[in-house]
Design goal:
Blueprint (H helix, E strand, L loop, with lengths): L19 E4 L8 E5 L9 H15 L7 E5 L3 H12 L3 E7 L4 H9 L3 E5 L4 H15 L3 E2 L7 H18 L6 E5 L4 H13 L4 E7 L40 E5 L1 H15 L5 H18 L10 E5 L21
Parallel strand pairs: 2-10, 3-4, 3-6, 4-5, 7-8, 7-10, 8-9
Antiparallel strand pairs: 1-2
Helix pairs in contact: 1-2, 1-5, 2-3, 5-6, 7-8
The structure holds 4'-deoxy-4'-aminopyridoxal-5'-phosphate.
Family: Belongs to the cysteine synthase/cystathionine beta-synthase family.
Organism: Natribaculum luteum
InterPro entries: Cys_Synth/Cystath_Beta-Synth, P-phosphate_BS, TrpB-like_PALP, TrpB-like_PALP_sf
Length: 326
């Protein structure tokens, strides 16, 4: 467990034990609490799976000491994996489509990872194919595959969820979180439902994403600016378990943008668009619990703020809505 009252051996020990902070713009009778994941050393929730997946894979022998990790990723997962790989003396290669954020690629490289760019037109599919091709060419290389690796969900079941339950003495009424791979929500939801099967679970996606189809809801596919959550092809979201989820809530880019500005100006949270979408959804669930429209075992809602707005300043996250780039 992370403790700041003694010197630590490695930056890996600073992963997790993030603060849980009240969101004030919520009904007084049903507080909303947000887990601030930008407190991790790589400034996102993905540091948790970077460390957890690589340590377990080494223990199981799926990865040998000195081996190579190859992941198709454009973002926070690369940074989380790069931190862990560096400290566990593994090599890391990330396959990134060209159009993706230069800041994130620079951070991965600074952490000692090799970046292989694939043509923008080949999309994420092209990056995935190239990652597997590289793994076949190298001795002792693995692709952790965050979208299908159960260790992703397990990382949150073993770390994020117990931290939340400890902070709230087990009194969690609802869990609300954005879904990219869905590892974060699935890990917390599984833990929550084992403690109380009545816990309300809401997934959050951007308008234009297709997660709602998992619950048989109609969705119109479209582009969105909210980053890190949502899907255009539910076949890739292998970790998502519809049975654990009561609703899938779609948040508009405009609502998320207003909320991320409000969270900064009123509450001092420098968080990005996926956190803002989660906040919008969590406040709505809290209001419905307060109004008696949702039955929850406790009067509280927990959500996750996955990363910080600083990583998106170059995309104009704090400019006007029209000037915010996806
Ligand atoms: N927000 C951001 C900024 C992310 O990078 C991610 C991961 N893609 C998420 C939310 C969603 O997390 P998960 O993959 O665990 O669903």
């Amino acid at each position: 467990m992370t403790s700041y009252d003694r010197p630590l051996e490695s930056v890996l020990e600073t992963i997790g034990q993030t603060p849980l902070v009240c969101v004030h713009d919520a009904p007084g009778v049903v507080p909303v609490y947000a887990k601030l994941e930008s407190f991790n050393p790589g400034a996102s929730v993905k540091d948790r799976i970077g460390r957890y997946m690589l340590e377990r894979m080494l223990e199981r022998g799926d990865l040998s000491p000195g081996g190579t990790v190859i992941e198709p990723t454009a973002g926070n997962t690369g940074i989380g994996l790069a931190i862990a790989a560096g400290q566990l003396e593994l090599n890391a290669i990330f396959v990134v489509p060209e159009r993706f954020s230069v800041e994130k690629q620079q951070l991965m490289a600074a952490l000692g990872a090799e970046i292989v760019n694939t043509p923008t037109d080949d999309g994420m599919g092209g990056a995935i194919d190239r990652a597997h091709q590289l793994a076949d060419e190298l001795d002792d290389a693995v692709v952790p595959q965050q979208f299908s690796n159960p260790l992703n969900t397990e990382a949150h079941y073993e770390t994020t969820a117990p931290e939340i339950y400890e902070a709230l003495d087990g009194e969690v009424g609802a869990v609300v979180a954005g879904c990219g791979t869905a590892g974060t929500l699935m890990g917390i939801a599984r833990y929550a439902l084992e403690r109380d099967a009545e816990t309300y679970v809401a997934a959050v996606e951007p308008e234009g994403s297709l997660y709602g189809e998992f619950l048989g809801e109609g969705r119109e596919e479209g582009a969105y600016k909210i980053e890190g959550i949502g899907t255009h092809d539910t076949a890739t979201n292998e970790l998502f378990e519809p049975d654990l989820v009561d609703e899938i809530y779609a948040v508009s880019d405009r609502a998320a943008h207003e909320e991320l500005r409000r969270l900064a100006s009123e509450e001092g949270h420098l968080v990005a668009s996926s956190a803002a979408a989660a906040s919008v959804a969590a406040k709505r669930v809290a209001e419905e619990i307060a109004a008696g429209a949702i039955d929850a075992p406790h009067d509280s809602v927990v959500t996750v703020f996955p990363d910080s707005s600083e990583r998106y300043l170059s995309k104009g996250i704090y400019r006007s809505f029209e000037k915010w780039e996806s």
